[in-house]
Amino acid sequence: MGKQRIAVIGLGRFGATLAQEAQANGVEVLAVDSNETKVNDIADSVGEAIIADCTDPKAINAIDWQQFSTVVVAIGSDIKNSMMTVIHLQEAGVRTLWCKVQDKYHAALMSRLGVQKVISPEEEMARRAGRTIHFPDMMQQMLLGADQFVAEIQIINRMDRSAIASKLGRKHHQLLAIKRKTESSFTQTTALPDCLYPGDRILVLSQSSAEASWLSFMS
Ligand code: ATP
Fold it and tell me: Which GO annotations describe the biological process of this protein (predicted)?
């Protein structure tokens, strides 16, 4: 199987970062922007970078979009350009479109147009920060639907097995993996360790209703 290919249109902070991360993670990226400087800035860190105004149907039709599994439209601040680009891409047969939006009106418009994934980075980050602000030990959190989430927790205070068991067992948190302070990756395990030390990290599957209990778990 060949490399997965995606295209990113709009190389602001969001688009450029997404393009570079995807390329660094093994995806072949075409980066597109109407601004020459933005294209030159990213040229060395993606597969290909081209200057094009994607509100122009001629520019859209000059590219074979069928080669891309996903096209990301990351034109946030100009809703008209974002919308025209999406419409032209849909007319060119692009099926999987992601779109970065700046506000709820932009989001509603993109949903109405049938865009598969509508991304509102500021709002999503603010929600995430709001959820975790009480939990300074929570490094990362991934929501799994409405009821569950996976959290990466940094251990601050030494805890022995009985302390871990009482916190996890009582509070409906399931241990998934442990990374010791000296290790570079997590080891999958559901078995409780004899001890957790400051600097160790754990991955835990939790019920959202039990989220507040992390406060007591960590203190
Ligand atoms: P950021 O991602 O930096 O948070 P943003 O989403 O508001 O901000 P913009 O400032 O809108 O990003 O920049 C998006 C990029 O889209 C800019 O580099 C701009 O040149 C590019 N862009 C705007 N219109 C078009 C277009 N018609 N075709 C191609 N690129 C475009």
Answer: potassium ion transport
CA distance 122 to 203: 26
CA of 11 to the centre of ligand 1 (A): 6
What are the residue ranges spanned by the domains of the chain?
Answer: 5-122, 132-218
| Residue to probe by mutation, ligand 1, list 20, 33, 72, 110, most atoms within 8 Å of CB | 33
Question: Taking the C-alpha atoms of 99, 20, 126 and 33 in order, what is their torsion angle to the nearest 10 degrees?
Answer: -40
pTM for the full predicted model: 0.77
CA atoms of 122 and 24, how far apart (whole Å): 23
Max Cα-Cα span within the chain: 67
Please report, as a single letter, which amino acid is at residue 85.
T
Q: Report the SS3 class of residue 104.
A: helix
Q: CATH top-level class for 132-218?
A: alpha beta
pLDDT one-digit tens code per residue, 33-69? 999 999 999 999 999 999 999 999 999 999 999 999 9
The answer to whether the beta carbons of residues 153 and 204 sit under 8 Å apart is yes
